[in-house]
Design goal:
15 strands, alpha+beta, single chain
């Protein structure tokens, strides 16, 4: 009888252990990273859980001064944007996938030079999205942050002093969703949409002819052929104060008024800057 009881207790113990193993939550698996030559020695990426969410956290440390994330989906736009890297080499952002469901290829590249235009591929991985991001997240506007940046650099030269450099720095430093060279965000229709301070305006050989009192005619051309500016203040319908640089040979950030109700030639486009990444 003693032996039978022992066997009974062994079987009961075995069943308890088996139930615990089956019911215990499985450890989340991480996305597999395909490292390029030497990439894993220059980038330490926090494991990314395998899921189907419309965003991922890109965090870790890097020896690179410039870190770029490039995201592409088949038959979709390709985005290539910098990730801010702290002085100690750390970074931590949430990246938003804004082009709907599908499988995206995420590539991380870097450079030992800050602000470099030449990068070395570090690694890549795939992420499949099957969930829709909240509308308020997809359309998170950055206008106030753009104006804060413009106020910070007013009267100084941004980058090389080209007009485009002001928009680039304002958007990149605020983790904006834009596609180089001139798709600065969500395109607006100035005849229908509300235009706000902080929107980006792009000119293509725009000509303005205005008849002033006393028989004086004022002619203004913006863009030879292109010019980029930030709408600093909305004065009225199609009347704005612009913040821009490289105007009349002046490479400092300055302001000036423009009246687009007197356009006689050329084109212009206005974009609303929205977030692509959120600093964690």
């Amino acid at each position: 009888m003693l032996q039978i009881r022992n066997v009974k207790y062994v079987i009961q113990a075995f069943l308890v252990v088996a139930i615990l193993i089956i019911s215990a939550p499985s450890q989340a698996k991480s996305t597999a990273i395909r490292w390029y030559s030497g990439g894993n020695t220059k980038l330490n990426l926090t494991p990314i859980p395998i899921d189907t969410s419309p965003s991922i956290v890109l965090a870790g440390t890097t020896t690179q001064k410039t870190l770029i994330v490039t995201v592409a989906r088949k038959k979709g736009p390709k985005r290539s944007n910098p990730i801010p890297v702290a002085a100690d080499g750390s970074f931590n952002v949430r990246y938003l996938f804004k082009d709907g469901n599908g499988t995206y290829t995420v590539t991380l590249s870097g450079s030992e030079q800050r602000g470099s235009l030449r990068y070395q591929g570090l690694g890549s991985f795939a992420h499949t999205v099957k969930k829709t991001a909240p509308v308020d997240t997809l359309s998170l506007e950055l206008n106030s942050r753009i104006i804060d940046y413009v106020n910070k650099v007013m009267g100084t030269t941004v980058g090389r002093g080209e007009c485009w450099d002001l928009a680039q720095e304002a958007l990149d430093q605020n983790l904006a969703d834009w596609i180089r060279p001139t798709t600065f965000g969500r395109q607006l229709n100035p005849n229908i949409d509300e235009i706000k301070a902080g929107d980006i305006i792009q000119f293509r050989t725009l000509k303005i002819t205005e008849n002033l009192p006393g028989g004086v005619t004022k002619n203004v051309t913006l863009g030879a052929p292109d010019h980029t500016a930030v709408i600093y203040k909305v004065i009225g319908s199609k009347r704005y104060t612009l913040a821009h640089q490289n105007v009349g040979g002046n490479r400092n950030v300055i302001t000036g008024d423009i009246d687009l109700t007197h356009v006689t030639g050329g084109k212009y486009w206005i974009y609303r800057p929205t977030a692509l990444m959120i600093q964690q």
